Amino acid sequence: MHWSEKYIGQPYVAGSADCAHLLSQVRSEQFHLPVPEAVEVERLTSRLGRTGQMQDLIGAYGQRTETPQEGDAVLMICAGRPSHVGVFCLIQDEPYVLHAMQNAQMVVLHKIRDLGRVFLKVEGYYRWK
């Protein structure tokens, strides 16, 4: 059983169980790595505000990588802007992203190659600094 299965199906709750909070939760629980303070990942109500928030968090905590590893952040483009984040997983040599998806109202696991089907695109992969 892969560690990501523990999170699949958990409800999406804006501001307390959304994509940024899931990333922080997984980084802390599964990888025992430092995460931003809770106040820094508060979900903004507008997509444009979330885009700025994601860029600030990535700039402060992330380092772009072309070779993602389990637990790295996956920044995704939604509606033309980088405003969604998930956790990179490698399951049986297939890259996946675990993310709290607002449209699904829960945490889901998607193959990276299938993200276009849910109107998402990978902007980049980021390792914690």
Care to give the gist of this entry?
With about 130 residues, the protein is α+β, with helices and mostly antiparallel strands. The chain is built from 2 helices and 6 strands. It has one domain: endopeptidase fold (from Nostoc punctiforme) (Alpha-Beta Complex).
Structure description:
By secondary structure, the chain is of the alpha+beta class. It has one domain (3-128): endopeptidase domain like (from Nostoc punctiforme) (endopeptidase fold (from Nostoc punctiforme)), CATH 3.90.1720.10. 22% of the residues lie in helices and 34% in strands. The protein is built from 2 helices and 6 strands. The protein has helices spanning 19-31, 47-61; strands at 62-65, 73-78, 81-91, 94-101, 106-111, 120-128. The protein has a 6-stranded antiparallel β-sheet, covered by helices on one side. The radius of gyration is 13 Å and the shape is globular. The termini are far apart.
